[in-house]
Amino acid sequence: MDNRVYIEIAPGDVNYVNRIMEGYEYLGILTTIDPRRATCCINATADTRKEVVEILTHLDTEVKILADREEAEAGLR
Fold first, then answer.
1. Local structure of residue 76 (DSSP, 8 states)
2. What are residue 69's phi and psi, to 5 degrees?
3. Which of 4, 24, 47, 54 is buried most deeply by CB count within 10 Å?
4. Is residue 41 part of a domain?
């Protein structure tokens, strides 16, 4: 199973989401895939992936969970 979580957020929220992950003792490490669309990958572990998704879905900002890397990279080519 892929432990990465792909998301799309508002470009201005990238730092906010990154700080949330840091604040939770680095449950996942955020990497930006497409800065224009603010699609990101959060590298989690098998033990933390479910918790990462739970946190993301309860933030005060809109977070769209993407199906896979292909969806996150759409438009880059």
1. -
2. -65, -35
3. 4
4. yes
